[in-house]
Amino acid sequence: MTVSDTAAPSRFDAALRRLYLVRFAFAVAWAAVLFPASGSAGPLLTALLVVYPLFDAGAVLWQLRTGDRDPGAPRAAEWTNVVVSAAVAVALGWASTVSTAAVLAVWGVWAVGSGIPQLVAAVRRRGAGGRVPQILSGGISVLAGAAFLAQGLRGSGDIAGVGGYAAVGGVFFLVSAVRLGVLLRRKAS
């Protein structure tokens, strides 16, 4: 433990815990709506596909703006995540008008492209608490993204798997929130 680990709980850690809870709730709700909508192309499916990476970009941007216990820490991985997620929202909007296979390919590229910076950021800050689940989530995102990309390139027409991917990612955010809550209680006592 470092001196900062034994200090009073930081506002950033508490805010990050709340953000993780919001991200969990969003991912589960999004997946619940996507599953029934995944069988038919249309405006609802397009909107769902665009909203998810935009929400991801917004959440990471909020995290960047909220601050950190180390203001001088490199944030290139987080900024990369924001830029990639915003670009993917546009690409998914376009892909949803082309085919489900195109959506899977774009989603796969995005999962890999956002999983790598998530993994890098979580590894760099693993001592801050609540990061082990984010390390696992980033690694799984890379693997799942490669699978979605392969499915898309093979011409698959089933995107329900992205709902499962989102739900699993949400569970990792919940685990991170719970772990941060435990660490915050320990610091407060």
TrEMBL record:
Coiled-coil zones: none
Q: Which domain of life is it from?
A: Bacteria
InterPro entries per record:
DUF308_memb (IPR005325)
Regions that span the bilayer: 20-38, 44-64, 76-95, 101-123, 135-153, 159-184
Keywords, comma-separated and alphabetical: Membrane, Transmembrane, Transmembrane helix
State the protein's name: DUF308 domain-containing protein
State the organism's lineage.
Bacteria, Bacillati, Actinomycetota, Actinomycetes, Streptosporangiales
